[in-house]
Amino acid sequence: MIKIKVKSYCLGMWQTNSYVVSAEESDKCWIIDAGFDPERMVADIKIKNLSPEYLIYTHAHLDHIAGTVVIREAFPDIKTAISEVEASFLGDPAKNLSSSAGMNVTADDADLLLTDGQELDFEGLKFKVLATPGHSPGGICLYQEDAALLFAGDTLFQGSVGRYDFPTSNGDNLFTSIKQQLMPLPPETKVFPGHGGATTIGEEKEHNPFLRG
Do the strands 51-56 and 160-161 form a parallel or antiparallel pair, or are they unpaired? Predict the structure, then answer.
């Protein structure tokens, strides 16, 4: 099996985690989420002579899309992907919450719209799209079964869960998403969240105070 490498970058004032996913003996990579001020990440990608194929958004809140312009300028051939539910959020500062933060953050329309259960191929390995609405209406996670990896966006954190007090958030949907889509995954599955440190499904199932009862 191809060995997947994951490099995390904590970016911008909201300390958003952006991830570069690559594989041994390949120059292809994916970027998961585009935090503010991604220049350091972009420089690393260029130093490693990687060629980003996709920028995949776990959701379209401003702190996960703000670095798009810099990334697309550096890598003009990169394609973007987002849940079809949040396609309109990219160009709408009210929907992506940037206007409420006194900013005007937008990104171009996505090249690929994602749906629950869809599979994306990365060097012969399948990443499955898991729809996890709640923190935002079109939030997704990306799951790679063979390597036991989950990119969780702002759905699940180490010891916590995503906020559900935003205008388009829904707490009931969030906990349903976690219960139905994430908790059934193998306990050894490594979770790479949108903020904070990595964890595992097993750790969160056992110790996350928001998931008890």
Answer: unpaired
Dump pLDDT digits (tens) for 56-114: 999 999 999 999 999 999 999 999 999 999 999 999 999 999 999 999 999 999 999 99
Tokens of 167: 């205008």
> Would you tell me how many other CB atoms lie within 10 Å of the CB of residue 150?
29
CA 62 vs. chain centroid, Å, equals: 13
Q: Judging by DSSP bridges, how do beta strands 199-200 and 112-114 pair with one another?
A: unpaired
Q: Which tokens in the block code for residue 116?
A: 């629950």
Cα distance between residue 57 and residue 67, in whole Å: 11
Class of domain 4-211: alpha beta
- Provide the residue ranges of all domains of the chain, joining segments of one domain with +: 4-211
| pTM, to two decimals | 0.97
